[in-house]
Design brief:
The protein contains seven helices and 13 strands. It is α/β, with parallel strands linked by helices and 287 residues long.
């Protein structure tokens, strides 16, 4: 059993960029195409959920990729070494195949698309609000209780993601910042609406105008919020501005993705000058 390990021992996780992860995805893909049985990526905890999702989007094939918040340098602590050993056991486990990139936190195994960091500190806590952890390491053996569908991946060779703005909507926000986004060099935007994607009435026109100029994805600011396309009536009052109104004007639903992850997917989908239809197709598996 051979596992490839990648770590950034001298780079804080808050300094990692999507471009770093695109490069790592390429290295992992090459290693897995040869004789490696799995891959482990060790990094700091601050961006672990984002790193894992980028790899989930870019690394093809059935072999496991496991991301964990553990150092891998000469000063690695005993707890971190134990976490690395556990991650390698998960990456070498046959049952971990065809699940995409996984995130290991303690003894809990999460699917990258659902994992969210919910507590700061040296021992970060991760939750997957929509589904919970899909597996647990029990007495040194990874055991999987839930299997998630392996979703299509994007090619790594398009380079780093395009610039995408992330805006979380708050009470009283009227959308005056939206018109400046194209002039600031952004190629797309993700809006975290209230609840299932609601925004104030006065914000609907500027959002629709922005969606006519660049791809805009509508997510929820709630940790377990879901924004999907709906058919039929909405059950909302006529003067209520909600997700269905915005989707009808061209915004793209984020599905089960948080704003953090929708931003990464949108940036990767926009490489190569992809238009609205191609971006919507990239988000459709998450509906």
């Amino acid at each position: 059993m051979e596992i490839v390990l990648h770590a950034w021992p001298h780079l804080p996780s808050a300094s990692l960029s999507p471009a770093h992860l695109v490069e790592v995805a390429h290295r992992i893909e090459q290693a897995l195409a040869e004789d490696c049985d799995g891959a482990v990526v060790a990094q700091g905890a601050d961006t672990v959920e984002e790193s894992a999702f980028v790899l989930d989007l870019l690394v093809p094939g059935s072999k496991p990729v496991v991301v964990t918040a553990a150092g891998a340098g000469p000063a690695t602590t005993g707890d971190a070494r134990g976490q690395l050993l556990t991650a390698m056991r998960v990456a070498g486990c046959r049952e971990a195949r065809d699940l995409g990139t996984l995130v290991l936190a303690g003894d809990r195994i999460h699917a990258a698309r659902f994992a969210q960091r919910v507590r700061t500190g040296p021992s970060p806590e991760l939750l997957s609000p929509l589904v919970g952890p899909i597996g647990t390491v029990v007495e040194g053996r990874p055991r999987f209780w839930v299997r998630v569908t392996r979703l299509p991946v994007l090619p790594f060779h398009g380079g780093p993601p395009r610039a995408v703005a992330l805006l979380s909507w708050t009470m009283g926000e009227d959308g005056r910042r939206l018109g400046a986004l194209p002039t600031l060099g952004y190629d797309g935007a993700v809006v975290e609406g209230m609840g299932a994607g609601y925004v104030p009435i006065e914000a609907v026109p500027p959002l629709c105008e922005l969606a006519a100029r660049m791809p805009v994805v509508l997510a929820s600011r709630a940790p377990d919020g879901v924004v999907v396309a709906r058919g039929g009536g909405t059950g909302m009052a006529e003067d209520e501005a909600g997700d269905t109104d915005l989707l009808r004007h061209g915004l793209i639903p984020a599905g089960c993705l948080t704003g953090l992850k929708a931003r990464l997917l949108l940036g990767l989908a926009l490489r190569g000058g992809a238009g609205h239809a191609a971006v919507a197709a990239a988000f459709s598996p998450y509906q």
